[in-house]
Specification:
It is a single chain. By secondary structure, this protein is an alpha/beta fold. It has one domain (6-204, 251-311): Vaccinia Virus protein VP39 (Rossmann fold, 3-Layer(aba) Sandwich). The protein is built from twelve helices and 17 strands. The chain has helices at 11-30, 76-80, 98-104, 119-126, 128-131, 146-155, 176-185, 196-202, 211-221, 226-230, 252-264, 295-311, and strands spanning 6-7, 37-42, 49-52, 55-58, 61-64, 66-67, 83-84, 93-96, 111-116, 139-143, 161-167, 188-194, 231-234, 246-249, 269-270, 275-278, 284-292. The strands form five sheets. Strands 2, 9, 10, 11, 12, 15, 16 and 17 form an eight-stranded mixed sheet that branches. β4 and β5 (61-64) form a beta hairpin. It is globular. The structure holds S-adenosylmethionine. S-adenosylmethionine binds at residues 6, 8, 17, 44-46, 50, 97-98, 115-118, 121, 145-146, 168-170, 173.
Length: 313
């Protein structure tokens, strides 16, 4: 395996990719007799491969092969993306990342767009053409920022094309305006990881959010009145509205629902129950959400997505 292999994730990564792969297969099957050019777009494409964390025994102790920095971390990516530690035995499992899974899908997509900002991962993605020679002329690798590249792609004419877009950021990198641009194509189905764990950590209990986090949240959630939604003043009693004794932050469920409502405000169909991706300590990291942008195709797309999402329960 080459050095560009990407190391991340735990069991929730398997679940995420399993859902994606099942959807891709069902999607190309359902649309195989239609006249559309079918695209797979992966906007945080990674390297194409990944190494899975496994446990191995050394000196009588069970240790995980992945180790990361010890200080508190804000984003789920930092918790799971890691480098191999030299003092543990390494059991390496080489698995397909999302890009390779999409290339393996049958019936095949007509075109593949892989967006990745890391240059060495782009090199790795380009080398997929030798592994999948029949797709050589149908793979486009764009090195750049996912939001910028996607906005340009969404501005193109999508009348004769349909696509599945996978948004798999580590943290809060997806802009709400990008999601709006996707909905406006009326051609691109969206699977997006909403980084709810990171969002909850950024929404400080006392409402005092550092300016840099605030602007990231605004970019992720859009200019909606999320602060009003997420923070309520606490009064001593119902008739004492001028007296504020504290601030109450919305629950994690309410924050998730807020994002789902945002999706529903733009897309004709949104799967009502996203997959909850949790780490080994059962902490919720991401909601894996599905939204279909084409009114005509939305019914079928939603049925397939709901079926797949319910399989993992
Ligand atoms: C969770 S990994 C993707 C894993 C991939 N989907 C897979 O299954 O193999 C996120 C990737 O997004 C890339 N990335 C981070 N910020 C980005 C940005 N703004 N634009 C494009 N890629 C970005 C990272 O370099 C990393 O490879």
């Amino acid at each position: 395996m080459d050095h560009q292999t990407h190391i991340f994730g735990g069991d929730w990564t398997d679940r995420k990719l399993d859902i994606l792969f099942r959807y891709l297969q069902a999607y190309t099957t359902a649309l195989s007799n239609q006249r559309f050019d079918l695209y797979y777009i992966d906007a945080f494409a990674g390297a194409g491969h990944r190494e899975k964390s496994t446990e191995s025994k050394k000196h009588g102790k069970v240790s995980t092969v992945l180790s990361g920095p010890k200080q508190p971390r804000l984003f789920p990516d930092e918790e799971t993306a890691a480098t191999f530690s030299s003092d543990v035995e390494q059991e390496r499992l080489f698995l397909d990342g999302s890009a390779r899974l999409a290339l393996r899908c049958t019936p095949q997509f007509h075109r593949f767009i892989f967006i990745e900002k890391n240059p060495s991962r782009c090199t790795s993605l380009r080398s997929l053409t030798s592994e999948f020679p029949s797709a050589r002329d149908r793979i486009e690798v764009r090195q750049g920022d996912a939001n910028e590249e996607l906005r340009e792609i969404c501005r193109q004419n999508w009348r004769t094309r349909r696509a599945v877009l996978f948004l798999d950021p580590y943290g809060t990198q997806v802009s709400w305006s990008t999601i709006e641009a996707v909905a406006e194509t009326e051609a691109i189905d969206l699977w997006v990881l909403f980084p709810i764990g990171a969002v909850v950590r950024m929404l400080q209990r006392d409402g005092q959010i550092p300016p840099s986090w605030k602007s990231r949240l605004e970019d992720l959630l859009g200019p909606a009145e999320w602060q009003k939604e997420f923070y309520k003043e606490v009064h001593p009693a119902p008739l004492f509205e001028n007296e504020i004794i504290g601030i109450e932050r919305a629950s994690i469920d309410m924050i998730g629902q807020f994002f789902m409502d945002r999706l529903r405000s733009r897309f004709p169909a949104v799967a009502p129950e996203p997959a909850e991706l949790r780490n080994s300590k059962n902490a919720l990291l991401y909601l894996f959400c599905f939204a279909a942008s084409n009114k005509r195709g939305a019914g079928v797309a939603l049925r397939i997505a709901n079926h797949i999402l319910n399989m993992g329960k």
